Amino acid sequence: MTTALKDRITKLTPEERKLLWARAEQRVLQRNKSSQKPDYQQLVAYVKAKQDFNLEALKSSLRAKVPEYMVPAQWVKMEEFPLLPNGKVNKKALRNERPLDKEEHKAKPEAREPKNDVEKKLLAIWKEVLQLPNIDVADNFFEIGGDSILSIQVIAKARAAGIDLEPKQLFEHQNVEKLANYMASEDQRTEEAISQLHLKHLVSIVPNGSKPPLFCLHSGGTHFFFYNLFGKQLKNDRPVFALQASPHEGELVLHESVNAMAKDFIADIKQVKPHGPYHFISYCYNTAIGVEVCRQLEQKGEQANLIIADTMADYLSLFDASQTPRRAKAFLGRFAKNPVKTVSNFVKGKFIRPLRERLKTNDVTGSEKIVQELHLNHIEIYRSYHWQPIKSPVNLLLTEKKQEEFNTKVVASWEKMTTGNLHVQPTLGHHDRLFLEGTVVETAKNVDDLMDRYESKNLQDNR
Length: 463
Fold this sequence. Notes:
The chain is α/β, with parallel strands linked by helices. Helix content is about 50%, strand content about 10%. The chain has two domains: about 20-180, ACP-like (Non-ribosomal Peptide Synthetase Peptidyl Carrier Protein, Chain A), CATH 1.10.1200.10; about 200-320 and about 375-460, Alpha/Beta hydrolase fold, catalytic domain (Rossmann fold). It has a seven-stranded mixed β-sheet, with helices on both faces. The protein has a two-stranded parallel sheet with strand order 1-2. Helix 3 (about 55-65) links the parallel strand 1 (about 45) and strand 2. Helix 6 (about 115-130) crosses helix 9 (about 175-195) and helix 10 (about 225-235) crosses helix 17. The chain is elongated and about 105 Å long.
């Protein structure tokens, strides 16, 4: 690495360095996918010794004198070097020799079983990357063939499997057992660390877990409390957070746009979880926020999975002026069947309920006033949001409706909103009770299945 390049990297911000690392991961994985042969190089030592030698002692001696990257990743013991007719070493023939590390692992006794889910995942990743069938949880990654290039693959696959692994952690804890123990101790410190962060919008429901977190977006500008029961019903080892438009204490935050709200949400999210993949669940009027958060994360090179709870995209478009002929036709159809009920519902919807809402607006004070102000602001920015398709997959939880054609419109609205995959997941219950007692268990089960499905596909794509 040149001095000029070192200087440039030193001047990068932490976020820019993380983005640079993420791009490097993607390039390595893309190159390896397009070729049957691994697209990386390793330092290999071919040793001809007068007598048997202790490989570990030789490595330790070498590490005391040179940096880690100069220590050979593989060692081959030679009786004689193969020669060409001109007397030079036949380097092509050397490649057929089996490294000592491979021989040792082929012959070593059966390795210990992993003690927990994190060890199990890490061990499977190490075996895949190092192409070794028998690895012990105490084996040092860099002593059994690992190097800095392979470590990028390990980190990328670990993140795809829901383990938020950093390069520094792998270099400091070089075997599966120590690395898993470190991750467990990190989980224990997470709750305390989150409480010390300066977070305006993020609230912890279930702070710990090794899986990618689920972020629950507020409904209608403020409400997220109903997610508390839902979060407790999800599988263990899944961190769950809620995002509120504004804290109710202190200065009120009224965003001028959906884009600005999404930007603030991501700033909080990144403090808790610097890298994806991320899961989001949107409900009612916060679907625009869900779409925009995913869009902005996509622009940062992150992966996101958007789960929609029984809600149409751009719901207010149903009341747009362009829909007047359709609404008039539907009104006349209802009037023909039951004129008294139709007129009564029309008067209530157009005059009585709006009047009651205005009267309530004038009477509320304190916390109710804050909730109302946040809700009205959210409807305003929702109305002005410019809806555009995202690349992220969308998973749609869908309840049965009395009017089946309405669900057809809901599905069609989301087909327009993603260039990725749209998966429709039928779920029991009524829209208003998805996160309440009696229905929440079914909702949590379906959301768990959707997240597992996404992570499984993500892991396959990264192989």
